[in-house]
Amino acid sequence: MDVSVFLALGAALSWTLAALVSHRPATELGSLHFNRVRMIAATLIMGTILVISGRPFDIPPIFFSSIILSALAGVVLGDFFLFAALRRIGPRRSNILFASNAVFAALLGWVYLGEVIGLQAGLAILFGVGGVVLAVIYGKRRDLLHQWEDVTPPLWIGVVFGLMAAICQAFGVVFVRPVMAAGVDPVAVTLARAAVGTIVFWATFPFDPSRQGKPIFPRGRILALTALNGLFGLGVGAAMLMAALEFGTVATVTILSSTTPVMILPFIWMRTRRMPPPAAWIGAVFVVICTVLIAT
Predict the structure, then answer these.
(1) Which of 185, 234, 258, 269 is 20–30 Å from 241 (CA)?
(2) What's the Cα-to-Cα distance from 223 to each of 14, 99, 100, 220, rounded to whole Å?
(3) Domain of 197?
(4) What are the CA-CA distances from residue 121 to residues 9, 11, 177, 250 (Å)?
(5) Is 140 inside a domain boundary?
(6) Tens-digit pLDDT profile for residues 88-144
(7) Neighbours of 151 (CB within 10 A)
């Protein structure tokens, strides 16, 4: 079985954990400053992993432009729009919009990289996208009301943010795919992308009036949750995605790593104490079929 399957699913699980700890700090700090703090956490964590593991920070200069473009699209713009959507429409709705990046990435991989989508892979993508949609679109019943379901009106702004996050993430994956196919170390690439994101986000700090008179770094629980998001989202999850792109195509890796809305179902069940309806679990079955089709 292709190792990219396990790596892509591992990235999805890591991003699920990141999503679970991001709602409160993203809401309190705002999308922009939340990303500033989590970028620093991710950079420090990945740098520590690189040193402890003895990996060399060896990235050929020919790939610098691709990594910078990937970081600007996927990390800076993608994460900014994702957490802006998260604040306005909650993790469930923002996740389904973000999952559409699989379709965008497949199309970009075909146009930009010339990756051919075979019949079985195309069928897998349809099952995957359909499964994600079923997993999260199950209406809004009274017994499912929770702070994670709150919407800040108008709804269309959150929808636009979610779609922009998906498109930017797709471009970020396509830009970095040739780098990973060349065998560059995924931890080094992840560190480089996080470093670019850190520089860009903190360059905006002096021009952010919303932070005037407020502490630069949060304290206590908010800081811990933000650091955990950096670890799972920009660190472990991103490194697994980079490693998966070394072995798998953009289309298959992206659809598998977009199964976060399915993986988050049992966590939402535990958190809200309300079991998602049958349609959500049928969606989970679709995602399993998608995984089997890709793996075989």
Answers:
(1) 269
(2) 19, 27, 30, 6
(3) 3-116+151-248
(4) 16, 20, 18, 11
(5) no
(6) 877 667 777 777 787 788 888 888 888 777 787 778 877 877 777 776 665 444 444
(7) 12
